[in-house]
Specification:
With 328 residues, this protein is α/β, with parallel strands linked by helices. The protein has helices at 30-41, 76-89, 137-141, 151-154, 172-181, 201-208, 305-326, and strands at 20-26, 47-49, 63-64, 74-75, 93-95, 99-103, 109-113, 116-125, 129-131, 147-148, 164-168, 187-191, 213-216, 219-225, 234-239, 245-249, 252-255, 259-261, 291-293. The strands form five sheets. Strands 1, 2, 5, 6, 7, 8 and 19 form a seven-stranded mixed β-sheet that branches. Strands 10-17-11-12-13 form a five-stranded parallel β-sheet, covered by helices on one side. A hairpin with a 5-residue loop joins strand 15 (234-239) and strand 16. It is elongated and about 65 Å long. The structure holds NADP nicotinamide-adenine-dinucleotide phosphate. Residues 66, 134, 169-174, 176, 193-194, 198, 220, 256-259, 303 line the site of NADP nicotinamide-adenine-dinucleotide phosphate.
Length: 328
C-alpha cells in the first residue's frame, strides 16, 4: 500500500568528515525546496536531505487549489517535482538521505546522515510533519490492512472499491480525503468528535453537500475491527455525548486527524514547545546560532503550502546573512 516515493536523484555528494558544508537543508517539502532555491541562487551550494518522504506531505495530496499561480489547481506531486527541478537548476544537491542524529550544541554543527558525519556552518530544519495516529492498538495492528493515512495513496485500491469506508477527522484534510474517496467507495462516513467541522467553509460545504458523504457527529473510534480476521471490517464508535456505542461496517479507515512535527531527532538540541514544534524567534532563528527553521515543523498555526514556502525563503535569507557575517 502507499504511493511510490518520488526518488530524488541520489547524486554523489562530496561531504565527509573533512568537508564543511556551507548550508544543509533538512527536508524537501515546500519549505525545504524553497530554501534550496534561494540558497542555491545565493551560491551557497546547499546540500538538501530529503528524509524518508521526498517532496513531503504535499506529494500525497491530489489537487492543490490555493497555491498562487495555478488558477486551475496543480497536482501536489507535480508541484513538488517542479520545485525540486527549480532548486536543482540553480545547483542544489538533493540527496535521498535521513538525519539519524544531530549535534547542534557545539560548533561545528554536526549531523549523522545515513551513518556518516556531516558538518555545516548553517542548517535549515524544514523536516515537516507526519500523520497523527489515534493510538489504538487495533489501529496499529490493521495499518496497511485497511487502516491508512492517505486517501490519495490508497483510495483506489481494489479492497476499497464499491465498499463503504470511513474517514476520521473534521479538518480540511478529512473533507478532502472524504471527497476524494467518493470516486471509489460506495459510501463515505465522516466521523468527527464534535458536531461542527474545523475545515474551511468552502471545504466543509463541499463535503457536506456531497450525497455520498454521511457525517457521523460527536463520535470517536474506540476500536478498529477486526484484528482477529486481520483486515478491516468495521469500526466501533462511541458517541461522546450519549456514550452510546455502535459498530459501523466498512472496508477501510482513513485517518485524517492532523499532524505531528518531525522533530524527534532534534530533541534536546533546539528549543521546542511541549508538542515538539521548534520555536522560531526573530524570523526563522532557533535557539542555536546558525540553525534556522521553516515550515510545518515549527508552524502549528497556518500550515499551508504557501506559508511553508514563504518561511523557507525567509530561512534561506536569514542563513545567507548569518553566513555573510560569519565569513566576513
Ligand atoms: P487539523 O486542521 O488539525 O484537523 C484535525 C482534525 O482531526 C480536527 O477536526 C480534530 O478535531 C480531529 N482530531 C484531532 N485529534 C483527534 C483525535 N485524537 N481523535 C479524533 N479526532 C481528532 O488538521 P488537517 O485537517 O490535517 O489540516 C492541517 C492544516 O492543513 C490546516 O491548516 C488546513 O487548513 C491545511 N489543509 C488545507 C487543505 C486545503 O486547503 N486544500 C487541505 C488539507 C489541509 P477538532 O476539530 O475537534 O480539534
Amino acid at each position: 500500500m502507499g504511493r511510490k516515493l518520488w526518488l530524488a536523484k541520489d547524486i554523489e555528494t562530496d561531504y565527509n568528515r573533512q568537508h564543511m558544508e556551507k548550508v544543509i537543508i533538512i527536508g524537501t517539502g515546500c519549505a525545504g525546496l524553497t530554501a534550496a532555491i534561494y540558497t542555491a541562487r545565493a551560491n551557497l551550494n546547499p546540500l538538501v536531505l530529503t528524509g524518508i518522504m521526498p517532496g513531503g506531505l504535499l506529494t500525497t495530496t491530489s489537487i492543490v487549489e490555493n497555491f498562487p499561480g495555478f488558477p486551475v489547481g496543480v497536482d501536489g506531486y507535480e508541484l513538488m517535482t517542479r520545485m525540486q527541478q527549480q532548486a536543482e537548476k540553480f545547483g542544489a544537491r538533493i540527496k535521498f538521505a535521513t538525519v539519524e542524529e544531530a549535534n547542534l550544541t557545539q560548533s561545528p554543527l554536526t549531523l549523522t546522515v545515513d551513518g556518516e558525519k556531516v558538518q555545516a556552518q548553517a542548517i535549515i530544519i524544514a523536516s515537516g510533519a507526519g500523520h497523527r495516529h489515534l493510538g489504538l492498538d487495533s489501529e496499529a495492528k490493521l495499518e496497511k490492512k485497511g487502516v491508512t493515512y492517505c486517501a490519495t495513496c490508497d483510495g483506489a485500491l481494489p479492497m476499497f472499491r464499491n465498499q463503504p469506508v470511513v474517514v476520521v477527522g473534521g479538518g480540511d484534510s478529512a473533507c478532502e480525503e472524504a471527497m476524494y474517496l467518493t470516486r471509489f467507495a460506495s459510501e463515505v462516513s465522516l466521523i468527527h468528535r464534535r458536531d461542527t467541522l474545523r475545515a474551511s467553509k468552502i471545504m466543509a460545504d463541499r463535503a457536506l453537500n456531497n450525497p455520498k458523504i454521511k457525517p457521523v457527529w460527536d463520535s470517536v473510534v474506540t476500536e478498529v475491527l477486526d484484528v482477529a480476521q486481520d483486515k478491516v471490517t468495521g469500526v466501533r464508535l462511541q458517541n461522546v455525548k450519549t456514550k452510546a456505542t455502535q459498530v459501523l461496517p466498512c472496508a477501510g479507515v482513513f485517518m485524517a486527524i492532523g499532524h505531528v512535527p518531525n522533530t524527534q531527532v532534534f530533541k534536546g538540541q533546539v528549543d521546542m514547545d511541549e508538542n515538539g514544534y521548534i520555536l522560531a524567534k526573530r524570523g526563522t532563528e532557533t535557539s542555536v546560532p546558525g540553525v534556522f527553521v521553516a515550515g510545518d515543523c515549527c508552524d502549528h498555526v497556518y500550515r499551508q503550502a504557501i506559508t511553508a514556502a514563504g518561511m523557507g525563503c525567509s530561512a534561506a535569507i536569514d542563513a545567507e546573512r548569518y553566513l555573510a557575517r560569519l565569513n566576513q
